[in-house]
Amino acid sequence: PVYLGECAPVEIRGRVLGSFNAFVVFGQILAALLDGTFFYVRDGWRIMLAFGAVFSTLQLLGLIILPESPRWLYKQGRERDAVKVLKKLRGSENVRSDIREIRGALEDQASQLSLFQILRSPGITRALTLGMGIMALQQFAGINTVMYYSATIFKFAGFGSGDSICCCDKDVVPIWLALSTSIAQFVGILIGQKLSDSKGRRFLLLSSALVASVCLGLLGLGFMIQNEAKMLSRILTLLGLMGYLISFGWGLATLPWTLNGELYPMAARSQCASIATMTNWISNFVVSGTFLTLVHTPLQTQGTFWLLGVIAFSGFCWLFYRMPETKGKTLAEITSMFEALAAGAAIDCAVQENTYSRLPSDRAPSVEPFFTLNSDIDRPQSETK
Description:
Shape: globular
Order of helices and strands: HHHHHHHHHHHHHHHHHHH
Helix content: over 70%
Distance between the termini: 35 Å
Strand content: under 5%
Number of helices: 19
Radius of gyration: 23 Å
């Protein structure tokens, strides 16, 4: 995400960064197809694992031909190489505005900040808190619990038990149904890709968390009535699961990675993105490692999904007051915005975004940032001269 954020033009940055997660889920679709196909083969699990080496090799070959980030090249004094990469990425000979922005950013931030310096900056700390929070929310809302254990969840719901419900062998039904979970999330991600730069990050993230919490409640209800109404239980389980994955896909699946590629100034980006990514994987480990344990506690399966729904709704409430809009803003403007938000932390983001967007530029909050990313193209003409 950091690399993509440095390479992508601001007008399509959301879609480019969102493609990262879209291809991750597309890989899960391929994996589910392979699982279903080789389920019928003797010792097919060996072939499934072997395909991991095939796709890893393809990724390695792709990395060999990948160009360096133009920001990194310019920072190393390789301006000609940076211009060459920008021309290739932009498909245009005119990349002077991109170079001016990079030069201005690097002149203001000549060196990487230490963790102590990052924590001393109210604006960067606020951005980092948001970045870590949305990464944790992505996992604690239960996405990888559903993706890792989708076949097990379908078995818990009664699919594949007793009489076969389709032409497939009953033992393989949950595996093929698990394919639908990847497809549903992929559809949601495509919706998010389409709307990310038009509706904005804030709207998509809030709606995703809210609808996901409702669908998790529906999923839990399906498990609660499993013994009383089996067919209705299966319908509610499928609707809840598909609705959850689609809604998760358009916001919580991609936007945490998108935002962590654009929230931080250049001097703190690598450290902050690393901390946020670490938060994501630690949360992933905790949630995926406790799911099967929780379903065998008094919470049972329905209570576990309701717990995840409560977490998703709590995340919605937190984001409503802490998440500003970053759509269409340059990295410099995002940094300045977080400095302003940190200075006026008592004002919630919903009110602040509404107010600032209506103010003329000369009346917008003026805050002396701890570190600035403003480049020549962001400065008044008199200052540039």
